[in-house]
Design a protein that fits this description.
The protein is α+β, with helices and mostly antiparallel strands. The protein is 31% helix and 24% strand. It has a domain of 98 residues.
């Protein structure tokens, strides 16, 4: 698989910084970067704990969601899942991490959509209305759709970025990124998986829209779905291909179930 490197890579040269998650969630993620090559590389680990080590599987989620977006033709930041040996606070861990490139062009700077909206909005204008006025409605529809399918809990105002070209004075939205807190990211045991309801309308962070992915997907016009690829059960085989040796079959089965059942609920089979 092009997006997975199974061979163990010694990446103990990377230095990891702890970044607290946004409000409403627990724990912390570790991130790193390497700017020694021609193009800067960014790395992130799944959820970790100073006592138990790397306990989450958010990096696997990134691969699942990016394959899903590929299927629907949605632009996104490209991740590679790498089998790696890393050092955290003097202790070595064998894990899978995510690698990505810098998505900014040379003359571009970035600002969160939340900050850009606060500067450019019209009085009384919602983030959803603002994005439509800016001509970004297709991007927003794609984002709300994919976040619904995978129950992305973390689409706060800094997880959507505006890229501003300093020379041409033009702006664009960055490719969709950061889907780790999705699917069954908070299930760490078979018991938790068994009781997890894939159709539950769980509260999420969403800067554009509401805290309900079900309400948000209803903001998307019917014409969007009419042009969309019609998901088939066979598509799920390619989405989860090669992940069975990285994450347990019970997790894969639950994630397959979530994507399929949430798709079926839309009524576009």
């Amino acid at each position: 698989m092009k997006d997975i490197i199974y061979e163990l890579n010694d990446m103990r040269y990377l230095s990891w910084a702890k970044t607290r998650k946004s409000s409403g969630t627990a724990g912390s993620f570790l991130k790193s970067c390497d700017d020694t090559g021609k193009r800067k590389k960014y790395y992130k680990l799944s959820d970790s704990d100073p006592v138990y080590g790397i306990t989450g599987h958010e990096c696997v989620n990134e691969i699942v969601v990016q394959r899903l977006m590929d299927l629907f033709g949605i632009e996104h930041l490209k991740y590679t899942l790498i089998h790696a040996l890393v050092t955290i606070e003097g202790k070595d861990y064998e894990t899978y991490l995510c690698e990505s490139d810098d998505y900014k062009n040379a003359d571009e700077g970035k600002v969160s959509l939340e900050d850009y909206y606060s500067i450019k909005r019209i009085s009384g204008e919602s983030p959803f209305e603002f994005c439509k006025r800016m001509g970004w409605e297709q991007y927003i529809y794609e984002m709300l759709f994919i976040d619904y399918l995978v129950l992305n809990r973390d689409r706060h105002g800094a997880n959507i970025e505006v890229l501003r070209d300093l020379k041409t004075k033009t702006v664009r939205l960055a490719p969709l990124f950061d889907h780790g807190l999705s699917l069954v990211c908070r299930c760490h045991s078979k018991d938790e998986l068994d009781v997890f309801d894939v159709l539950e309308d769980r509260k999420v962070q969403a800067f554009v829209g509401t805290s309900s992915t079900f309400e948000n997907v209803n903001l998307i016009p019917k014409s969007f779905f009419e042009k969309l690829h019609k998901l088939q059960k066979a598509d799920l085989d390619s989405i989860f291909e090669g992940l069975d040796t990285i994450i347990g079959k019970e997790y894969i089965d639950k994630m397959r179930s979530m994507i399929w059942e949430r798709w079926c609920k839309l009524g576009y089979i």
